[in-house]
Design goal:
mainly beta, Immunoglobulin-like, 6-stranded mixed sheet, 5-stranded mixed sheet
Length: about 325
Amino acid sequence: MQKNRFSHARRIFSGIVAALVLGLAGCQTPAITNLTPDALAENPSQIYTISARISPKDAGYVRGTLIPRIIIDGQNFTMTKSPLGENIYEFEYQVPAGRTEIKYYFLISYQVESSGILTPREDYSQIFTANIAGRYVLSLEVNRGPVGARISILGRGFTANDTVFFDNTPVRTVFESPNAISFYVPAVEPNRNYKVTLGNGSVQSPVGTFRVDALGGATEGGSPSVATATGAVAGPLSVTPSSLNLRTGEKAQVTFTTPVTASAGGLLIDVTTDVPESVIMPEVVVPAGSNTVTVTVEGGRPGNGNLFAKGAGVRELTIPISVR
């Protein structure tokens, strides 16, 4: 990493003063193209590569006279040729501890020849800002799966307040660590792609595109069939018993079976009810490596209604329930 600081020669200083007078933010020469992203992923060494494509446009430019520099935090550094391509120069800058933003601009000096006379020239770029991103998304673990599958997102800076969104609709999200967060594929229309974002408050960060697959129970048109609870497989999901008749406080074992084996992270069966005060039950997740799960359902306040189950491509499985 190059760390030598240059003394400001008089002509360089004059160029900087002129740049400030003209207003750097609105003056960009076509000879300088910044190749550095606006957001730099935070790393433990706090060293970041700033690069630019530099090619003077003046007629008569004398090759070999170019001196590219970068001005960061009032310091003047010489850039070096990059192995990434012709006319690309770079500088590795170690950001001071605690900083989350750097401002910089490029300053180049070179000579042009006209009628045998060499004349020094300088060009400068606008002022650029780069943010050190402590929170960012690297990738989805996979980019497709069925309804109910648990999918991981890898990155950095995640918190328990983060929520995953499918086409701007929040889905069930599980915080695993600052570097990993997961979600269950919601009961949405299969055989299409959905935009996945990660949000914390009003700001959402793009994650990628996820395709929801249909597993079993497909009709001729490709859409999952509607299933009814009969105690046997009806489409891709079955439940036993097919209905529940409980007293308040009484418990019953209910088994959900899918025709597919749950992958790593398990397979969520999204169960809701129209009588929430009458039903007490846990989240239904088929464990990894299995295709069945049994949960305990307890009767709450008296009432009559239904449980509605979605998962593994089924649109809706209805289980009547009565609590007396």
